[in-house]
Amino acid sequence: MKAKKSCPYVKLDTSSSFDKIGMLRNIIKKNNWTETTKDPDIIWKTREINEKDITRLNKSKALINRYPNPGQYTNKKEFSLIFQSIQQYFPEDLKFYPEVYFYPEDKKRLEEVLEKNNKNKKKTFILKPSEGSEGIGIQLFQAKYELLKESFSINQEFIIQKYVKDPLLIDNKKFDIRAYVLILGVNPIEAFISTEGLARFCTEEYKAPNRDNMRNVLSHLTNYSLNKVSNKFTSSQDILSQNNDSKRTLTSLYKSLEELGIDSKMIEEEMKKLAAKTIIALEPFITQEYYSVFGNKQSNKCFHIFGFDILFDKKCKPWLLEINAFPSLKIDNEKESGISPVDEFVKTLVIENAMKIAVLRKHGKKVDSYDNYERILPGESFVKYEMLKRVGELFTKLQGLKICGTINQSKFMQIEKLISGSVSKLERYDYNLIFIKVMKLRKEMNLIMFIRALEVLAERIFKEDRSRAEKFLNLIDIIH
Question: N or C, which end of the chain has less CB nearby within 10 Å?
Answer without folding.
Answer: C
